[in-house]
Amino acid sequence: MTPTHSSPAQSVDFDVLIIGAGISGIGAACHLKARRPGTTFAVLEGRDAIGGTWSLFRYPGVRSDSDMPTFGFGFQPWTAHTAIADGHLILDYLRRTVREHHLAAHLRFGHRVVGAEFSSATGRWTVTSRLAGDGRETTHTARFLFLGTGYYDYEAGFTPAFDGVADFTGQVVHPQYWPADLDHAGKRVLVIGSGATAVTLVPALAATAAHVTMVQRSPSYVFSTAAADPIARVLGRALGHRRAHRIVRRKNLLLTQGMYRLCRRAPKLMRRLLIARVRRQLPAGFDVATHFTPRYDPWDQRLCVVPDGDLFKAISAGRASVVTDRIERFTTAGIRLASGRELAADLVVTATGLTMSPFGKVRLAVDGRRVNPPDTTAYKAVMLSGVPNLVFALGYTNLSWTLKVDLVCAYFCRLLDHMDAHGHATVEPVLDDPDMARVPYMDLNSGYVRRGVGRFPRAGTRGPWRVETSYEKDAERLRNGPVADRALKFTARAPAARYGRLK
């Protein structure tokens, strides 16, 4: 796909500007193309490729941690046999989506959006981008802004300040910056971390490394699931991919949401079941109590999914091991632990997490006033109080990301339809309940959430200001519920104003 940059011949004024060409931005573009064919839009992407996460992360074994029938789009069947897919397959799926929905002409690569300001006088956003290569700035204008930027910083993964790193004679790598030429074959590898990235890396590296040790301060819940779904395969053959996709997507949604609810309602029972499942997949006598028994309840943090138990197979085969301890410091030859034990290594991978960043670090302003996200409250988890004509997509943390994105995009199209039908120029959520408590947008206890959620919008505790973790509740209010709401302030289109048509 050839990168497209702005030129004098290209339009810079649109009905909708979509920021980000990852799974959220591509989803929004597809929904607009299908539901509102007369709406003009462009997708601004800072990098030179689509895919977001799936084109950025190149570490060994990178894969989804949700099943692909629900992580894929509702309108674009996932046709591969694997339910937990490698990153390159997901990227191929997104490229196919772009191709089949004829989005290439709408994509503008190398546009790193740095600021966006809304003018109430004109009813339009002015979006400032910094171009890749020469660094010059360019502007686009639009009536609506759709933020499909995800929730983490593409430029800065999280690495704790370890003592003695400079003394280490081997190589230290963060998964977010994996070198293309890194050869780990035959090396002693330490993977620091116990989250989704760590449990993905360990079996992938263990295939050719001399040995891989996962070094964790405390364990996470690790859940083994089948890499391929036999039911999906049978239904695909019998019904065709499109009809089978709807059934499998619904089936997987019900199973995942059912498991989440059980974990929240019966945490002690689910804790026993999850740990017993791990114990059955490891050699007799393995210290599960130390290495795979978390201190927190299930779904206080995301479950780490391993397809076909690949992590446990690597441990059982002796190619990988787990050490649970605190790191005291790096040494010239590896790492010294708080217990006094030293682990020798040629390569240390700091799978220590991501850095959360709201809205791609885009500076938002309304009529010259800077928008500070924590001062805003999320309306139906799609818009921000006090910010007109802006919709954002942040996926679920307890279900597949894209389930929420599809609902947000459907709501966005319904909102535009409503505004067209009633002659509205702008829409702005207004929080008129000063006594309502405001809470963090995400309720996970993961380290990356605790570190970064304070920079995000807040959630409310009543009505449309709640951030729901239930697909059914979101479907009711975003896909089926009325658009008109007393918390939304609409303004009429001035007869003399030359606003872009949204039909």
Q: Can you describe this structure in just a few lines?
A:
With 503 residues, the protein is of the alpha/beta class. Helices cover 29% and strands 22% of the residues. Strands 1, 2, 3, 4, 5, 6, 17, 18 and 21 form a 9-stranded mixed β-sheet that branches. Strands 7-16-8-9-12 form a 5-stranded parallel β-sheet. Strands 13-14-15 form a 3-stranded antiparallel β-sheet, with no helix packed on it.
Account of the 3D structure:
The chain is of the alpha/beta class and 503 residues long. It has two domains: 13-155 and 356-492, FAD/NAD(P)-binding domain (3-Layer(bba) Sandwich); 165-350, FAD/NAD(P)-binding domain. Helix content is 29%, strand content 22%. The protein is built from 13 helices and 25 strands. It has helices at 23-35, 53-56, 68-71, 87-100, 196-206, 230-239, 241-265, 267-280, 288-291, 310-316, 401-422, 447-452, 471-480, and strands spanning 13-19, 41-44, 107-108, 111-119, 124-131, 137-147, 171-173, 188-192, 211-216, 222-225, 304-307, 320-324, 327-330, 334-337, 342-344, 347-350, 363-366, 369-370, 378-379, 383-384, 390-392, 424-429, 438-440, 458-460, 488-492. Strands 1, 2, 3, 4, 5, 6, 17, 18 and 21 form a nine-stranded mixed β-sheet that branches. It has a five-stranded parallel β-sheet with strand order 7-16-8-9-12. Strands 13-14-15 form a three-stranded antiparallel β-sheet, with no helix packed on it. Strand 5 (124-131) and strand 6 form a beta hairpin. Helix 6 (230-239) packs antiparallel against helix 7 (241-265). The radius of gyration is 24 Å and the shape is globular. The two termini are 29 Å apart.
